Amino acid sequence: MTGMHSGRCYVRGNMRGEQGAALDEKMVVVPEIFKTANYRTGAFGKWGLGNTHLKGAPNPLAHGFDEFYGWKSQTIAHTYYPSTAVHNGKEVSLEKGTYLHIPMMEHARDFIRSSVEDKKSFFCYIPTAIPHAAMHAPTELHEKWRKVFPVSYTHLRAHETEADLVCRLLL
Questions:
Q1: Distance (Å, rounded) from C-alpha 112 to C-alpha 120?
Q2: Full-model pTM
């Protein structure tokens, strides 16, 4: 978000419980730069810089994003089926078994479409959690690869799932 080289950032890896991960509010970040040019800004997915339901520095809305929908924290993003999501700083319950990438991409698609309809320039940041620690996408998104690669399809199924989700943006 800052454009800093990873060797110069204060966050050098995953932080336990997100403690110390929040961006310093004095730092200038990419979405704030886009805002100065009158862009709409949206982030959909994994924030990784604090708990997204909190006010202030941990929240993406405090760093130039107009809209956010995604995981509550970096740690929770290790599951694709969380019990809640966060939309614009508010935690919302999800139906049991909700594969978060699907509503996440729907929010991103709606953000893009409404920006286009309003003839408004936009910056849409979509950090998915695919492929990531737990690769447990819905079976219908990866079943076809079991036949093609019966021994090792884990990596491919994660990319297939991501490709399917990106296609949802285009439909």
A1: 9
A2: 0.76
